[in-house]
Prior knowledge:
By secondary structure, the protein is mainly α. The protein is 63% helix and 6% strand. The longest helix is centred in the C-terminal third of the chain and has 38 residues, at 214-251.
Amino acid sequence: MRRGALIFAVLLAALLTAAPARAQFKDAAFSQSYNDDPSSPGDSTDTFFSFKEYFGGLGHKNPVTIRTMTLGSFVFVGGSQIYNRDYWKLPIVYGGVLGGTAAGFALKGKGNDKAATYCFAAAGLTYWASLMDGVVFYESDQSPLPGRATFYSLLLPGLGQIYNGEAWKLPIYWGGLMGSFHFYSLNRTNYERFRRIYNESTNPDVPYTGPISSETALYYRNLYRRYRDYSVLAIAAFYLLQVIDANVFSYMHSFNMSDDIALSAGPAVITPDTSYAFGPSYNPAFGMRFGITF
Length: 294
């Protein structure tokens, strides 16, 4: 009876001692800030995008991350040039984007559709160049900068891998993208062909005398439509994969792993967790302990 009371007292004391520690751990875990320097222009995971931070950066009141600067510039064209203090580039950006768009709409539908297409393409190219320019000239002491590698790959597939010094990956991603585009074009052409045949064979107003029946045309139309959709998914998969690859490996660039790998082994005594509380009634087990140092 006395032994049971002693055990109960020991367990109660342990619980009372651990309760404040657990409470302190929870408070610290939920109140801890993982960004040591909120004003640092490096990558941060605290806030995905902040309008206050972005417009404060445009006014040069506070530094912004490359993510905030670039995402804001997707909507507010020229924001990257303002933040980077490259004001002389703004007339080129606005002239190319606004002028090309206005000229395209003015020419479209007036017998100049080809010229209108060129104007829209010039406006899009200028918009893309303004985003790329902002990423290139963003100032940072960190190299490689994960945000820069990510946006490089978003704006030009494979450029993030070149920035990370992993150009050997380009044949993999570019081969996957070009192969997917090839199969997309092939499957789309066949889909359009059999769709046209099926529409002609099922048109009651026009007699159909083609060699392919409507059932066969329907089967291949659905088949190539499915293959076309698979090709689109493959394009998206290769594109997203190279973006993720650029981001992850730019983060791992500073990860230092020593080439000295050591394996240690030795005898060990394995005791149950309750052996110290309930006395020596449990027999310990003997075994080997292994450890890897790298």
